[in-house]
Amino acid sequence: MNNLKTILLVEDNPDDLALTLRALKNHNVANKIVEAHDGVEALDYLFCTGAHAGRDTRQQPQLILLDLKLPKVDGLEVLRRIRNDQRTRLLPVVILTSSDEEKDIVSGYALGANSFVRKPVDFEQFAVSVRQLGFYWLLINEPPPAIGGLP
After folding, report:
1. 39 within domain boundaries
2. Segment-wise mean pLDDT, segments of 10 residues, the chain, 151 residues
3. What CATH number has the domain bearing residue 130?
4. Structural domain tally of the chain?
5. I need a labelling partner for 39 at 20 to 30 A (CA). Which of 10, 31, 52, 95 fits?
6. Residue 144: inside a domain
7. Residue 49 CA: distances (Å) to CA of 6, 83, 112
8. Is residue 47 packed enough to be buried (19+ CB in 10 Å), middle (13-18) or exposed (0-12)?
9. Strands 6-10 and 115-118
10. What end-to-end distance do the CA atoms of the chain give, in Å?
11. 1 in a domain, yes or no?
12. Bridge partners for 35 per DSSP
């Protein structure tokens, strides 16, 4: 398995994407960041279909940062599919969204999100949040071994 700690960043808003990438790179949080601009791209990457056909499904990201309000397939459906497949069900998923709707928080956790983080409006606060997310999920958290091979 590849030793690079990869983040799958699922974000359709170009401004939020740029801010997140900037915050991650400024804090050297990840070795590799894979971008998905909608739910279909995220699922294609995770399940090695579409543009990612032929990619090794055993090489999964160590962290998924998932927006909820996505085109084509929304974030909650992406999360549902991640948790319903044995190859991806244990991947850490952090919902990173501007939504402040209680139903989104409840639905996210009910579907198996590991964390729910509201995007702060202020860039400095946002950068601190992203740095802390990366630090915890990539350096402190111990991921399950051989994610793709679990029953």
Report:
1. yes
2. 75 90 75 92 96 89 94 97 94 91 94 90 82 83 63 43
3. 3.40.50.2300
4. 1
5. 31
6. no
7. 18, 17, 23
8. middle
9. unpaired
10. 18
11. no
12. 9
